[in-house]
């Protein structure tokens, strides 16, 4: 049995296996078909991409075939086309030996032989061969060279085929990997709340990043490799069989053994591999958990426990890997042994045949050559087979995470109308794993309205708010608007019309603005055509989105503004009203001004910079600021700042790293400053050692004042000790050149260059008026200013960049806005200098009306991972403004105001109550009764019930209040409010909203959290 | 003027006379040298006590606002320490201190000073000794006033 046939059969088996799960597949296909329309919009226009947001095939091979059959077939055709040439390249050595070298072609006394005879071979029953070309007459040498050249040519052609096939295969694999990764990511977006509860972020990230990688690598080979190598091996095998049946059978026997025994041995290897995959995925998950909860680890002192835990895991992983290695190399050894055995048999038995005259020498050589070609493809085929099993297992394991039952359905088109009219809850119940949270809640609210839900301390109020916000899907009952089930609505429309701000704001790394407009990032730009046609075609081919990115996705219309600057103004207006304007202004002062993005502000900053200086002079405060002057040393700035005369943009030029920068060192050495700096460094180190000795490490005074950190003290002490030793040695042995060299050899040169670098690093942060060690004189200042110019030229010549130089007529983009305005350093040794200069600056900013532009720069402030650079109050404000700029029909606040503190929450609530209630509705979860009377309608949570609505200010709830738009009834605690009990007021006479949506589009119940809203 | 001269000035202060020079250097290094123009306030009565000042050069007047304008209580010259009671007692300034000529002073930050006190008992004892000495003086004055 040939290897190729075996491989083909296995492939067939795999395909059959794919057919073995028809039910699942039908389901998948059904889903895909049903969702084609919606998915087509999302994932591009490629019909094949329809499942980008749908399920994955249960069988890897089916998945591969469905998405890449065209490419696979094309590549297979090329493989087939290459085979005859490959056969020819096997046959040529026989002809070279037999015809040219041994001279069989010239046997009958012929001086010449025919070369390049082209004959169309026909089966015997069809007739004779058709001769196409009679060939050239050549002599023995010419024949040898001719045949050899042909052999070379064939080698080249085969190489070219191989190259093309490999590239095509690689591209195919990468495309499929891209598709698979994107699909998995799309599926994550559809995880149901239950699935999310069991999912660790770092594990899913590992799946998408690492685990599908080998799958992608395999996809390129899935069909082509067995086809290519299988046919190649079959060709070689057929060739051997044609030469000699016995040798052929012998070879086939060995191959058969290889194909039967080795995979058996490898099965165990696969099992171990699977274990390893799970173990390392869990390791990644565990590390992620520890990193996320590092604060808890520290505060509980659980470092040792965590270390032991991870150590144990690593130990297990090590054992697994070791067992895999042992097994793997055992298999390899066996494989090699079998491969090496066969040539021995060939030489032995083939030689026997040759001696007996049953086999020509040429044939023997060709057979051995052909057999040489046989093991690599066979080995690769066996590898392929193992990889197939391995990757299938991996694929199945990945699939386990993305089973359809873990996903929520796709969004379907449905109703999309203003949320106005009678919103009714009909028997709404929410069941959590630990018990019911809401049972049979029935009530109705006339929208638009201002609704407060007073919590009783339990989770009911918050859960009901989330039901209204569609964050929780009720387990029983339904929500209707004007008697239409909200499930009929399109999910996209509802998420656009309803905004929800909870107690934990979720912020993404990026600027304040990015986070606030996140809710408006819904509309792919229509006018922005993708210019890169190649990228677009690739995206289509891989089922990736074709919408342009990066691009401006902001839906300005939803925010009700015309463009980006109007949106900024709107955002700033909200931020100011909520009381974060001052903070954003300060972010702006510390922010950077990109002259390209803010050309107006950049120009005005230069203007303001000059005005600032004039104003200070007019007030008699010119001496408070020492301006940056290219030709003068700035006494109030550090040595490093004076040297660079700009702001470093790479870490290689920042802080102490400057002392190690090669260009800087060259300039320092050339100008002789290096020696001065080393001396200064010695004196600083000596002083620090003297005065900070005895302070415990980690003492705040170290952090605040010392040039050295506590753990650096011993290091610098050692450096200084080496200096003393060097100087003593120099004194003893005199200063002869020989001695100097000798001292350098034994490591007592004045300083090792490492020591010098460490010392130069110290004075870089030195400011004479501040540190007062008396290290800098006028001569040093002069030389430093010279070095400054030289450094700039040298850096420019080296073309390295890395510094944004100060220029009196330009904005320094790398420096904070405030520094650009000041363009100098405040003289700290004058009492109250900072206050005086700040006051002048503030007055100037007001006079020149720069504040709005500066505040806009503040919107570029980076919030850090999960918004950690902001305070919890700021995070809450950002989350709130994010909901507000969307202008939702219904805003649900579920604890969103509680981080603001009582007084501020009351103010913000007042502001919101003013804005909402006419066209838009506001629902706020209240922790207690105190603010309840500010709402038109009040619901009360009691156990698993929601009672109301009642209209505050009434002594006996349930009575109708004349003149008020809405009327409510209070239902006695424990009783069930039915829709019939509800009365709706005039406010419900809004246009009937007719909508449809699918319930499963929204997230299901989440674990109940007791959330408090306004403390007021 | 460098750290060394400031250390010399600190040594003139009775409170710091016994303190190890290296500690005084640390105190000087962690303090700021500030210049006050003629007539500029060090601090006003009622301000929060955030620092003590050691006058290095120049003169400063200690005043209280009276009905007929400020009443000068004392004139402080070089090597005088002012405001130390406020930072130790954590009470608002009891009087106003103003530079009467261009004056240079060493501003000893309250937080840093207390940090040094807690870290180096030697300084703390020196401060206690000085305070006890002042109390003794006050007692004597009180006794004199009673008898006189």
Automatic annotation (TrEMBL), chain B:
CDD domains: CAP_ED (cd00038). InterPro entries: cNMP-bd_CS, cNMP-bd_dom, cNMP-bd_dom_sf, Env_Response_Regulators, RmlC-like_jellyroll. Residues 15-134 form the Cyclic nucleotide-binding domain. GO terms for cellular component: cytosol. Signal peptide: none annotated. Gene3D superfamilies: Jelly Rolls (2.60.120.10). GO terms for molecular function: DNA-binding transcription factor activity. PANTHER family: CRP FAMILY TRANSCRIPTIONAL REGULATORY PROTEIN, HTH-TYPE TRANSCRIPTIONAL REGULATOR ARCR. This is Cyclic nucleotide-binding protein. It comes from Methylobacterium tarhaniae. The lineage of its organism: Bacteria, Pseudomonadati, Pseudomonadota, Alphaproteobacteria, Hyphomicrobiales.
């Amino acid at each position: 049995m040939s290897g190729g046939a075996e491989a083909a059969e296995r492939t067939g088996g795999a395909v059959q296996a794919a057919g073995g799960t028809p039910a699942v597949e039908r389901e998948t296909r059904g889903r895909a078909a049903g969702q084609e329309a919606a998915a087509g919009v999302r994932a591009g226009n490629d019909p094949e991409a329809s499942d980008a947001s749908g399920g994955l095939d249960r069988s890897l091979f089916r998945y591969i075939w469905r998405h890449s059959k065209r490419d696979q077939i094309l590549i297979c055709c090329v493989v087939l086309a290459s085979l005859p040439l490959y056969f020819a390249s096997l046959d040529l050595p026989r002809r070279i030996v037999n015809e040219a070298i041994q001279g069989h072609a010239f046997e009958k006394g012929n001086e010449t032989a025919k070369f390049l005879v082209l004959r169309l071979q026909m089966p015997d029953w069809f007739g004779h061969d058709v001769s196409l070309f009679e060939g050239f007459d050549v002599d023995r040498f010419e024949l040898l060279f001719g045949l050899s050249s042909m052999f070379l040519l064939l080698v080249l052609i085969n190489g070219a085929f191989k190259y093309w096939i490999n590239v095509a295969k690689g591209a195919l694999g990468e495309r499929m990997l891209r598709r698979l990764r994107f699909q998995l990511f799309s599926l994550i977006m559809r995880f149901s709340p239950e699935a999310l509860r069991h999912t660790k972020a770092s594990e899913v990230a590992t799946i998408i990043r690492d685990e599908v990688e080998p799958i992608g690598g395999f996809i390129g080979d899935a069909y082509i490799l067995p086809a290519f190598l299988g046919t190649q091996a079959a060709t070689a095998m057929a060739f051997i069989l044609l030469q000699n049946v016995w040798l052929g059978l012998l070879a086939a026997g060995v191959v058969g053994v290889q194909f039967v025994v080795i995979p058996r041995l490898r099965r165990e290897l696969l099992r171990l591999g699977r274990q390893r995959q799970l173990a390392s995925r869990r390791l990644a998950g565990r590390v992620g958990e520890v990193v996320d909860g590092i604060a808890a680890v520290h505060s509980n002192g659980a470092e040792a426990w965590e270390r032991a835990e991870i150590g144990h895991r690593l130990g297990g992983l090590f054992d697994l890997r070791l067992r895999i290695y042992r097994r793997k190399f055992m298999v390899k050894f066996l494989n090699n042994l079998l491969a090496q055995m066969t040539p021995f048999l060939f030489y032995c038995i083939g030689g026997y045949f040759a001696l007996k005259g049953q086999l020509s020498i040429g044939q023997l050589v060709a057979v051995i050559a052909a057999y040489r070609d046989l093991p690599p493809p066979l080995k690769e085929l066996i590898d392929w087979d193992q990889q197939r099993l391995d990757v299938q297992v991996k694929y199945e394991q990945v699939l386990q995470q993305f089973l359809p039952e873990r996903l929520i359905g796709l969004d379907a088109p449905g109703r999309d109308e203003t949320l106005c009219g009678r919103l009714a809850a009909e028997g709404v119940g929410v069941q959590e794993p630990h018990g019911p949270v809401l049972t049979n809640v029935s009530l109705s609210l006339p929208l638009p309205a201002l609704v407060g839900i007073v919590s009783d301390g339990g989770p009911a109020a918050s859960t009901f708010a989330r039901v209204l916000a569609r964050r929780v899907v009720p387990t029983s009952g339904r929500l209707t608007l004007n008697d239409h089930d909200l499930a009929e609505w399109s999910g996209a429309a509802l998420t656009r019309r309803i905004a929800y701000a909870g107690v934990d704001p979720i912020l993404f790394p990026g600027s304040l603005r990015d986070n606030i407009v996140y809710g408006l990032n819904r509309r792919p730009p229509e006018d922005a055509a993708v210019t890169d046609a190649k990228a677009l075609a690739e995206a289509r081919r891989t089922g990736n989105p074709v919408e342009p990115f990066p691009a401006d996705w902001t839906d300005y219309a939803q925010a009700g503004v015309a463009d980006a600057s109007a949106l900024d103004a709107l955002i700033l207006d909200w931020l100011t009203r909520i009381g974060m304007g001052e903070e954003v202004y300060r972010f702006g002062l510390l922010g950077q001004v990109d002259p390209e993005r803010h050309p107006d502000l950049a120009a005005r900053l230069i203007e303001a910079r000059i005005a600032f200086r004039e104003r200070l002079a007019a007030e008699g405060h010119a001496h408070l600021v020492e301006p940056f002057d290219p030709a003068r040393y700035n006494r109030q700035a550090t040595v490093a700042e004076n040297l660079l005369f700009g702001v470093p943009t790479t870490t290689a030029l920042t802080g102490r790293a400057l002392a190690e920068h090669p260009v800087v060192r060259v300039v320092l050495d050339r100008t002789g400053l290096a020696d001065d700096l080393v001396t200064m460094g010695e004196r600083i180190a000596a002083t620090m050692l003297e005065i900070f000795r005895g302070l415990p490490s980690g003492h705040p005074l170290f952090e605040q004042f010392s040039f050295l950190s506590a753990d650096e003290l011993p290091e610098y002490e050692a450096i200084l000790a080496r200096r003393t030793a060097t100087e003593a040695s120099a004194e003893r042995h005199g200063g002869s050149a020989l001695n100097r060299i000798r001292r350098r050899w034994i490591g007592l040169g004045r300083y090792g260059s490492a020591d010098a670098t460490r010392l130069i690093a110290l004075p870089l942060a030195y400011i004479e008026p501040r540190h007062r060690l008396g290290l800098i004189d006028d001569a040093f200042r002069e030389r430093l200013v010279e070095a400054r110019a030289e450094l700039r030229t040298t850096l420019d010549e080296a073309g390295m960049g890395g510094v944004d130089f100060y220029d009196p007529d330009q904005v320094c983009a790398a420096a904070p806005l405030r520094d650009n305005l000041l363009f100098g350093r405040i003289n700290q040794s004058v009492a109250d200098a900072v206050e005086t200069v700040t006051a002048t600056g503030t007055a100037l900013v007001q006079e020149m009306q720069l504040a709005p532009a500066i505040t806009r720069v503040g919107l570029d402030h980076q919030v850090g991972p999960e918004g950690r650079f902001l305070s919890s109050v700021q995070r809450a404000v950002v989350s709130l403004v994010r909901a507000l700029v969307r202008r939702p029909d219904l805003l649900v606040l579920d604890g969103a105001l509680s981080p603001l503190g009582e007084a501020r929450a009351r103010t913000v609530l007042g502001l919101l109550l003013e804005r909402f209630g006419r066209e838009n509705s506001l629902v706020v979860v209240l922790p207690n009764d105190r603010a309840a009377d500010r709402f038109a309608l009040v619901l009360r949570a009691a156990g698993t019930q929601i009672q109301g609505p009642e209209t505050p200010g009434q002594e006996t709830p349930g009575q109708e209040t004349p003149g008020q738009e809405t009327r409510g009834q209070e239902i006695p605690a424990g009783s069930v409010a039915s829709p019939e009990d509800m009365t709706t007021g005039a406010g419900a006479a809004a246009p009937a909203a007719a909508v449809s949506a699918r319930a499963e589009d929204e997230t299901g119940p989440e674990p109940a959290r007791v959330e408090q809203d306004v403390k007021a | 003027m460098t750290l060394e001269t400031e250390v010399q000035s600190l040594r003139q202060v009775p409170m710091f006379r016994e303190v190890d020079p290296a500690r005084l250097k640390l105190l000087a290094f962690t303090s700021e040298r500030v210049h006050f123009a003629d007539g500029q306030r060090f601090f006003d009565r009622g301000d929060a006590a955030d620092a003590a000042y050691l006058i290095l050069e120049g003169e400063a007047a200690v005043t209280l606002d009276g009905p007929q304008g400020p009443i000068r209580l004392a004139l402080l010259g070089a090597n005088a320490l002012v405001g130390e009671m406020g930072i130790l007692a954590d009470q608002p300034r009891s009087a106003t201190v103003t530079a009467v000529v261009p004056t240079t002073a060493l501003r000893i930050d309250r937080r840093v000073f207390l940090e040094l006190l807690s870290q180096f008992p030697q300084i703390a004892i020196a401060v206690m000794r000085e305070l006890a000495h002042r109390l003794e003086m006050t007692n004597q004055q009180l006794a004199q006033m009673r008898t006189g």
